[in-house]
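HOLO CASE FILE
Compound: magnesium ion
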Amino acid sequence: MQNRENENGYKSGFISIIGRPNVGKSTFLNRVIGQKIAIMSDKPQTTRNKVQGVLSLNDAQMIFIDTPGIHKPKHKLGDFMMKVAQNTLKEVDLVLFMVNAEEGFGRGEEFILEKFQTVNTPIFLVINKIDQIHPDELLPIIDSYKEKYDFKEIVPISALEGNNVERLLDQIKAFLPEGPQYYPADQVTDHPERFIITELIREKALHLTREEIPHSLAVVLDKMERQPNKDVIHVMATVIVERDSQKGIIIGKQGSMLKEIGKRARVDIENLLGSKVFLELWVKVQKDWRNKMSQLRDYGFNEDEY
Ligand SMILES: Nc1nc2c(ncn2[C@@H]2O[C@H](COP(=O)(O)OP(=O)(O)OP(=O)(O)O)[C@@H](O)[C@H]2O)c(=O)[nH]1
Ligand SMILES: [Mg+2]
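Model generated. C-alpha cells follow.
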C-alpha cells in the first residue's frame, strides 16, 4: 500500500549545488529560500560548510544543499571544504552544476565534471549570471557544455536578478521523485541561529577587507543572551585571524574597521533574530589555524558532521 503522501503525488528530494568558487551558488540558495541563510561575497571560497535550505511548497519540498566552491585545496580547511562538496554528490537526488556565463569552460569545470563521472546522480547544468552577457552569447555556451556531459537539463539563470529561477524550480520539481515531507513547512534551514550569526559577521569582514585577509578569518560566538528586562539580545563574538598584522587591519584606525563590521553585522543579525541586538566584537590571533585540526574543530569545522 502506498502512503498518503504518494497518493497525493507529493514530491521531495535533496538537491546539491556544486560549482567553482564565486559562481553564485549561495546567491541562488538565498533567492530560492527568500531569506539570507548563506553568506555571499565577491571573494572566492566564501562558503566553508554545507548549508541546507528548505523550500516547502503545497505539493513538494526541495532541500537545497549549498556547498563550498570546488578548488584545489592548499590547507586542511580546504581539504575539509572539498570533502563537504564531494560527499554531497552521492547523497542527493539531483545535482545542480552551476557555472558562470561570463567565463568559458575551463580546467575548473573539467575537474568537477571528472568527479561527476564517478556518481550516477542526475545533473542539471545551471548557467548563472546571464545578466552579464548578451543573449546572443548564450547558445554557444550551451553548445560547448552539451558536448562535455549528458546533462538532464541546461538552464540559464540570473540568481542575482531572478531571471528564469522559477522555471528552474519547476524543472527540478518535475524531476524529483514522490516522497515524504522531510522538514516542517516553516523550517528554512538546518543550521542553528548561532552558526548563521557568526557567518553574518564573517561576511561583513569579507566585504570590508581584501586579498589574504578573507581566507584567514574565522568567527566564534562567545555569548548570546537576552538582557533581563530589556528587549535586547547581547551577542558577543570573536573574530579570529592568523597574524598580528591582520589583527591590526581588522581593528582599523582607532577601532574604525571593527566598528563598521559590527554595525553592518548587527543589522543582519537583528533581521535574523527579529529583535534588537547589542553586538560586541573581539579580535584574536591564532597562528595558522587553518592547518590545525584541533582548531578547525573549535571553529565549527567538524568532519564527523559531514
Ligand atoms: N551579475 C551577477 N552577479 C552574481 C549573480 N549571482 C551571484 N553573483 C555575484 O557573484 C559573487 C559570488 O556570489 P556567491 O553566491 O557568494 O558565490 P558562491 O558560488 O557561493 O561562492 P563560494 O561560496 O566562494 O563558492 C557575489 O558578488 C554575487 O553578488 C548573478 O546572477 N549575476
Ligand atoms: Mg557560497
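CASE NOTES: The CA atoms of residues 134 and 171 lie 24 Å apart. The chain is about 35% helix and 20% strand.
CLOSED: yes
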